[in-house]
Write a structure and sequence with these properties.
This protein is α/β, with parallel strands linked by helices. It contains 11 helices and 10 strands. The two termini are 32 Å apart. The model has no long low-confidence stretch (mean pLDDT 94).
Length: 261
């Protein structure tokens, strides 16, 4: 892995950093593969209870995919298909991560970076942030799963508007339509994000994971398999040491200490 992707950990919170500030953190093909791999590793790490994705600096979360690679990495239908499979793997890894995830967005969040941010559970942004999906200016059809997430967040009409026009969406509009969940001053974004995730990390991991899995299953359309998975998670939580600890802590009027088991 190159220095284009960095990982930092502070207690139970890990941060994945897109680290190409000279290029507004544009995401190259190797970085997409690293995002998928690192997210998978963090999802399996019991010491990690939440993951933040961010760009270096405050100019950009990321300006999108590194288009300078396209003449080689997406030069025809065959290479485009391979490239798309790599980006889809990154989106899927973030979307399916069992830990809560937040995209912490300063500045520009464009193209593939919007897809990465939408794959996260929540998006917290600084005032002045800008969003856009310029696929229509490149004759690219945005990935189906990413379009589905856009529809889930903002509804079909706004999704069509954003994709058809390839226009830039302002910070206030992004908040109003549901593309982001928090909008704060640039100076407060980091504190807001990490304070929120420390609150989440203090809660029972089995409960948080069960909620995430259930919501994702609902959005995908419940199947017998997914309903069985949700029932299993509920049984596991009810039989856990954390359930007993949570009950004792409530009765003893103290904060619980959860172990994730």
């Amino acid at each position: 892995m190159s220095d284009d992707i960095l990982v930092q950990q502070d207690g139970p919170i890990a941060t994945v950093i897109l680290n190409r500030p000279r290029l507004r953190n544009a995401i190259n093909l190797a970085m997409w593969a690293d995002i998928a791999r690192l997210t998978g590793e963090l999802g399996k790490d019991d010491a990690v209870r939440a993951v933040v994705y961010r760009g270096t600096g405050t100019e950009a979360f990321a300006s999108g995919a590194d288009i300078s690679e396209f003449p080689e990495s997406r030069k025809d239908a065959e290479t485009a298909q391979r490239y798309n499979a790599t980006t889809a793997g990154a989106y899927a890894a973030v979307r399916e991560c069992p830990k809560p995830t937040i995209a912490m967005i300063h500045g520009f969040c464009m193209g593939g970076a919007v897809g990465l941010a939408m794959a996260c559970d929540l998006r917290f942004a600084a005032e002045g942030s800008k969003f856009g999906i310029p696929a229509a200016r490149l004759s690219i059809v945005y990935p189906a799963e990413a379009i589905a997430q856009l529809v889930d967040l903002v509804g079909p009409a706004y999704a069509k508007d954003i994709l058809f026009s390839a226009r830039t969406v302002s910070d206030r509009e992004a908040l109003a339509i549901g593309l982001i969940q928090r909008l704060v001053s640039p100076a407060d974004l980091e504190t807001t994000t990490y304070d929120y995730l420390r609150l989440v990390a203090d809660n029972a991991p089995l409960s948080v994971r069960g909620s995430k899995v259930t919501i994702q299953a609902y959005l995908a359309g419940f199947t017998e398999e997914s309903r069985a998975q949700v029932r299993g998670l509920s049984r596991d939580a009810a039989a856990s040491a954390d359930y007993r600890e949570g009950t004792r802590a409530f009765l003893e009027k103290r904060r619980p200490t959860f172990q994730g088991r």
